[in-house]
Amino acid sequence: MKIYNILIKRDSSKKIEDVAVIKEGFSITAFLFGVFWFLYNRMFKEVVILIVLVAVLQQITKISSEFDKVALEMMLAIIIAFNANFWLTHKLKGSGYEFVGIIHSNDIDQAKIEAIEDLDKNVFSDKFIDPKMNKQPHILKKIYSLINKIR
Length: 151
What we know:
Layout: E1 2-10, E2 16-23, H1 28-33, H2 35-40, H3 44-61, H4 66-94, E3 97-105, H5 108-121, E4 128-129, H6 138-150
Antiparallel strand pairs: 1-2, 1-3, 3-4
């Protein structure tokens, strides 16, 4: 099972306008397409930063070997791939979305359906982890209470 972040956007009357589901972890599309992934997700500030970073790396690699150049490019692509979904979540939070919680599911479509059903019922299932810790699955409540006892 994979872990997904659930974000919702509400209109002025507090009704849910949109539900965004973002996968946690490595983004293969960001790894393969880099700048184009950022452009597709309308993350223009990140595109500018990435272009400047690539230009700086190209200047650095002029004085180093071809292997170093390839290694730096691969490291940059891996760093981007591991952080792209986090940066997308952060961007959505800044554009009016509210982080609701985390859900684990087999695929993104199933995660969105389960999240919408749980939001609609206003009761969260065991698959949904509420960041406010007031509607947690049973095992998480025990862990949380143990941590509070230790403090």
